[in-house]
């Protein structure tokens, strides 16, 4: 992504969508970590640090980020142990209880290599949690602006995980708002085809306060449903939680 997109993420860090994803992340880490607060965690593609406060609740946090804007923001956040600026895969001697990649692997041409690298840096019994945008037919100027290579179905993301880990949960998120968001995204694709070419632009996640609160409550209810074991049938995002077998070295 370019610097402008990272600055948009800074402005949107408290938006309904970012908060909803953080709540899903916290729920998954809490469940997979058994409520522990002494975990060793790594976030790959940490952006401007919007997820770091949620991760710090569970233990010691390292981050990987390659954007200068992101690295500058991350180095200002207290509590992070190591800020690493190398693109993956790189030589890393550490292993972790939890590795997180929130909307990251769609930016990487070889997504399987990236997920395999993450899996290799899990402790036995450790968990890998990833989210990606859903459905290639929704690929639009938003994806072009963010330098995405692809979008996924749940089955495609699950297949991208290496055989060294066991996928224990894989499904969709942001389901209730999906019909509206998909309609807007598709209509913009039609308008873009019929208009003169212009630079691709990221879709803003900022909403008026009442709408933001409403959308936030919708995502909170989805997190609750997922925590209770319900699999949503579709959504704008795909999530996957995988575990490295305890006896694997």
Automatic annotation (TrEMBL):
InterPro entries with a match to the protein in the record: SAM-dependent_MTases_sf
Q: Name one Pfam family in it.
A: Methyltransf_23
The protein's name: Methyltransferase
Could you read off the lineage of the organism from its UniProt record? Bacteria, Pseudomonadati, Pseudomonadota, Alphaproteobacteria, Hyphomicrobiales
- Organism encoding this protein: Methyloceanibacter marginalis
């Amino acid at each position: 992504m370019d610097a402008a997109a990272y600055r948009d993420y800074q402005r949107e860090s408290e938006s309904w969508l970012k908060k909803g994803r953080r709540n899903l992340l916290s729920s998954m880490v809490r469940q997979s970590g058994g409520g522990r607060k002494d975990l060793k965690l790594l976030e790959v593609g940490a952006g401007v640090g919007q997820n770091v406060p949620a991760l710090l609740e569970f233990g010691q946090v390292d981050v990987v980020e390659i954007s200068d804007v992101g690295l500058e923001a991350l180095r200002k956040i207290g509590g992070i142990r190591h800020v690493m600026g190398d693109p993956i895969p790189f030589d890393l001697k550490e292993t972790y209880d939890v590795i997180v990649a929130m909307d990251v692997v769609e930016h990487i041409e070889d997504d399987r290599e990236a997920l395999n690298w993450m899996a290799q840096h899990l402790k036995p019994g450790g968990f890998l949690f990833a989210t990606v945008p859903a459905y290639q037919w929704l690929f639009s100027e938003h994806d072009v602006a963010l330098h995405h290579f692809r979008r996924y179905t749940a089955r495609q993301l699950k297949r991208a995980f290496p055989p060294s880990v066991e996928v224990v949960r894989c499904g969709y998120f942001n389901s209730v708002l999906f019909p509206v968001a998909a309609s807007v995204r598709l209509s913009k694709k039609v308008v873009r085809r019929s208009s003169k070419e212009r630079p691709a632009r990221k879709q803003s996640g900022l909403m008026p306060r009442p709408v933001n609160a409403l959308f936030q409550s919708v995502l909170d209810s989805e997190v609750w449903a997922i925590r209770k074991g319900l699999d949503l049938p579709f959504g704008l995002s795909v999530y996957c939680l995988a575990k490295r077998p305890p006896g694997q070295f």
